[in-house]
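Objective 1b: paired records.
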Amino acid sequence: MNIHDLSARTGATGRHVRYLVAEGFMPSPRGGRSNAEYGEDHVAAILRYARLRDLGFPPAAIKLLLEAHEGAPFPVSPGITLVIDPELFGSGQPVAPLVARVHAILSDLLKELHHAEAHPGRDD
């Protein structure tokens, strides 16, 4: 799709698209300057950036999050840090199943830790 189609799909102006490319928030378009072609990866990048801005993240923080190739760490509680793949930011993936899975994992881990503290020296 060309920049006009991309703008129509995302609501981002051509100027904003060029800013996002120049600042590294999204990849350069395929093709030359006059034949620039954008794809679904560009749509996703624009929507991800917009979602993070809506959540109050400044551009510098968004850049750091997106550059975190190992994942972006978010401290949850002392001793617990949630690491999120930057590709998930603004992806629209349903949150409820993720929360349920994290809840189940933490419940199992903390139950095991509590059991180990209550019964030191036992390997059951």
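Objective 1b, second protein:
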Amino acid sequence: MFRDESFQPSYSQPRHSPPPSPTRQDEANNLDDVFGSAPSSPTLSYATRSTRNDEPSEVPRLRSAHSTAGYRDGLTFAKGTTIQEGFDEGYGLGATMGLRIGSILGILEGIWAAVAKSDAKRAPAPDDDGVRMGTESQPETERLKALVVKARSELRTEGVFGRQYWGEDGIWVYDVQESGGGWKDVVDAHPLIQSWETVVAEEVAKVRLDTGVMDRMEVKRLGEDNEPVDRS
């Protein structure tokens, strides 16, 4: 046989599979996103957490609701009790103070009105030149009028219960000599009440006014009505 010199033996070469195309890799990733390729899949973990958070326990919500309701009930009860106590206490003081202020203003206004009425009835006397001059009582009327205006201004609620006499807690800051009279002791020691009662006493002495006549008339009226009288 003749050997063919042109024949070359062929040796088998290892065959390698081609790398996956990008298209197939993307398809695999898309399927992983849908079905979840592994427990550590971000999509699967997020979905699991969302499911747990969408169904919270009722205990915290109920606890918050009961706490809020309890706070409101407690606040309402406390306010009602405190307001009533404050009203009960403040009413007695306010009534006592109001009676004293009313007495001061009433006496001053009464004296002023009496003097002014007397001046109106008295005819002015002519002087040597024929000019009618006012009487001596007219300046007194103007003085009493100014005194009444000043008393009304100083004895207003804003003045009597001003910060110079009362603290933020509603307690008086002036000295009070307690003698068992209750709110009367507090009113007696009030600087404005003391000052104006001194003025009233001076004006009463000038016109020789008997202020006790009003008390005696009141006692007589109460006695006729068969009502108990307590003048203590």
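The helical segments are 22-35, 42-53, 58-121, 137-154, 157-160, 183-188, 191-207, 212-224. The chain is about 65% helix and 0% strand.
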